[in-house]
Design brief:
heterodimer, A: 497 residues, Cytochrome C Oxidase, Chain A, 0% strand, B: 185 residues, 8 helices, globular
């Protein structure tokens, strides 16, 4: 661990608090958009399909973008205060880019009702659109701005780590493949960050090709690209980025959980092999999004299923085992942080399992484009990555030093967990009952049973979301107060975590 | 003293090549789209790079100026790929010479900036240029309408194919730079 001055640590803490507060404001707003969508599907309120899809687009893009951004900001903070020097200017540049990008997206979707979905699947943003053309351009440019900010941040973290630990092969943990143990221990978070951020860089480069093509199409509408090529690029970018978000979250699980269990969580040969395998397979797992595209070469479909299995299992299995080893007979104090880490790991596993089920070709034939799909990614996002993020926030505000006073957030936490899992259950049940996803309402479904089931489940989900929001607000009370207190100048004399 | 003479000779050779490409060979190079876009334009860019090698002391060390320079280079490349610009440069030789000079300056500045800029900017610039080349190549391949009235659709598609190949090479180069830079001990 390198020596980092308290001034640098304070600067980094200020930046991460800024990120945290922005995220904490944005997140419930995006959840509310989800609530409105479920209310409409449950026929408890009426909105036009145009409004529904605009909300869906902002909800999806906003969640994917903000979760990745906060995950990156948090891992950057952990690295900058412990393992390598990061330039604070790069952090602020990334923050401003993301804020500008999100603002652009909000204007395009809320004001102009741009509603092509988070994936902007070609040719959806251009063909038969009922939103003004400028909003398509604004969305593309906003994603480019947001992407450049995040790409520079990813590259900066990778470069700083490589500089500190002696190159890419070392930070990827390849020295553990040798028979003899390495001379210098590599912190787990360094290896996991590398395994996560290199694919993220590749994903951003793919996205830049896709977005430039979109810009060309925007300026010259008579251009017609190959939809399959663009779908491959879209999902290589989108799928990889969402997975990377999850893995970054696991990075701080490896770093922070040992502080509560008082046990080391070192890299071993098995851990290094598992995570490096994940690095390789994560790049090819996205093929499972193209099962229904019959023109996609068949070997790629099989590769999609295999890569989905291989990318999920090694890192997950090794991490689960690691968490059990950490916790077993550890006499840990079950404060909110380790609780969130434990349930976050469970959420990751449950959502991951549901994803692997759906990536199985024979099952996908049945579950494709049903509510099973949002069920699985909401599980590992809401009950996985979000819990990791909240755990990080509580750690940041000093919940480790002050474990006795966190009764209110604990109540909020359990309300949140109950609300979230009942909300997710409605999605899973919808999937099992063949309720389609991405329908603004189910009124047009000719099968009465599916229509009614979809609407009833959406109603139950709406109630669950209210419960979830209530839990979140209870947690916010302490979290916000402490975050704001930490950002004040008086707090500069306090210990910097 | 000896190095100074070599640099002077190199500058003279670059000037001669610039003259040859821009004047006597201009008509031949403007005859087809691949020649114009894939020979004349990159040749001028390459001459700029060689010219910079002759004056290694010219470096852009300030990162802000470097970023501004890279934006100028990117904008130059985009401008000279626009169908209207291509048409104008084929029709008016002097406009074409403006492109030659612009590319020479762009090539000259690219090395002067990339040699000193930070890793993050280098990768983003190289990645974005590669992405731009690939997207342009694909667009030229799939477009069934004549973009530049001075050329034919077949030439347009042929240019697109070569753009894609160059972009693949450029992406590979970007990845090599990325991993090489990350592998410093």
């Amino acid at each position: 661990m390198i020596q980092i001055s308290s001034v640098e640590k304070r600067q980094q803490k200020k930046l991460v608090i800024l990120w945290s507060i922005t995220f904490l404001i944005l997140f419930p707003l995006l959840v509310t958009l989800g609530l409105l969508m479920r209310l409409n599907q449950g026929e408890w309120m009426r909105m036009s399909p145009g409004t529904f899809y605009a909300l869906m687009t902002l909800h999806g893009l906003g969640m994917a973008g903000s979760l990745f951004s906060i995950a990156l900001a948090a891992i950057s903070y952990l690295i900058a205060t412990r393992y390598a020097r990061l330039n604070i200017g790069v952090g602020y540049f990334s923050y401003v880019s993301v804020v500008l990008g999100v603002l652009g997206l909000a204007i395009a979707s809320l004001y102009a009702k741009f509603g092509a979905g988070w994936y902007l699947l070609y040719p959806l943003p251009f063909t038969g659109a009922n939103w003004p053309a400028w909003s398509t351009g604004l969305t593309i440019i906003s994603i480019i701005v947001l992407g450049i900010g995040l790409l520079i941040n990813c590259l900066h973290v990778l470069y700083a780590l490589a500089k500190e630990y002696g190159g890419i092969t070392r930070i990827a943990g390849w020295q553990y493949f040798k028979k003899d143990p390495p001379e210098k221990e590599l912190p787990s978070v360094v290896m996991i960050s590398t395994i996560s951020l290199v694919p993220a860089v590749l994903a951003f480069l793919a996205a830049s090709v896709m977005l430039i093509m979109y810009l060309l199409k925007y300026f010259e509408p008579s251009l017609a690209f190959d939809p399959l090529l663009l779908k491959n690029l879209t999902f290589f970018f989108g799928h990889t980025l969402v997975n990377v978000t999850m893995y970054i979250g696991v990075g701080w699980l490896y770093t922070l959980l040992p502080e509560f269990t008082h046990r080391d969580w070192k890299i071993t040969k098995v851990t290094a092999i598992a995570w490096n395998a994940t690095f390789f397979f994560i790049l090819f797992a996205y093929f499972h999004h193209l099962y229904m595209d019959f023109v996609q070469p068949l070997p790629l479909q099989y590769a999609g299923q295999l890569a989905s299995y291989f990318s999920a299992i090694p890192a997950t299995a090794v991490t689960m085992f690691g968490v059990i080893v950490q916790l077993y007979h550890s006499k840990i104090k079950w404060t909110i942080v380790p609780l969130m880490f434990l349930l976050g790991t469970a959420g990751w596993a449950i959502g991951g399992f549901a994803a692997v089920v759906d990536s199985t070709i024979s099952i996908n034939k049945v579950l494709h484009n049903t509510l099973w799909v949002p069920a699985h990614f909401h599980t590992y996002m809401l009950m996985g990555i979000l819990l990791f993020i909240l755990a990080f926030f509580y750690y940041l505000v000093g919940a480790k030093e002050d474990p006795g006073k966190d009764q209110k957030p604990k109540l909020g936490f359990w309300l949140f967990v109950i609300g979230s899992y009942s909300f997710l259950l409605m999605f899973y049940l919808g999937g099992l009952n063949s309720v389609p996803r991405r329908y603004s309402d189910y009124g047009g479904i000719p099968l009465k049973n599916v229509h009614e089931t979809g609407a009833h489940l959406a109603q139950a989900a709406s109630v669950s979301i209210c419960l979830l929001l209530l839990g979140l607000m209870l947690m916010y009370v302490t979290l916000f107060t402490k975050l704001l207190r930490s950002s004040r100048p008086a707090a500069q004399n306090e210990t910097v975590l | 003293m000896f190095k100074w003479k070599i640099n002077l000779i190199a500058v003279l050779i670059v000037s001669l090549l610039f003259y040859l490409l821009s004047y006597p060979l201009n008509d031949w190079l403007s005859l087809t789209m691949p020649r114009h876009q894939l020979l004349q334009l990159p040749a001028m860019f390459l001459l700029g790079i060689i010219l910079n090698a002759c004056c290694p002391n010219f470096e852009v060390k300030n990162i802000s100026y470097g970023i501004a320079g890279l934006i100028f280079i990117m904008a130059s490349l985009i401008f000279w790929m626009l169908p209207r610009s291509v048409d104008e440069s084929v029709i008016h030789p002097n406009f074409n010479r403006t492109m030659h000079f612009n590319m020479l300056v762009a090539g000259f500045l690219t090395i002067a900036i990339l040699r000193n800029t930070i890793f993050e900017i280098k990768i983003v610039f190289l990645g974005m240029v590669s992405a731009m080349l690939l997207a342009t190549g694909v667009a030229l391949r799939v477009f069934d309408m004549l973009l530049c009235s001075s050329f034919t659709i077949d030439q347009q598609k042929e240019t697109g194919l070569y753009f894609i190949l160059i972009a693949v090479g450029s992406f590979t180069g970007t990845l090599l730079v990325l991993f090489k830079s990350l592998n410093h001990k």
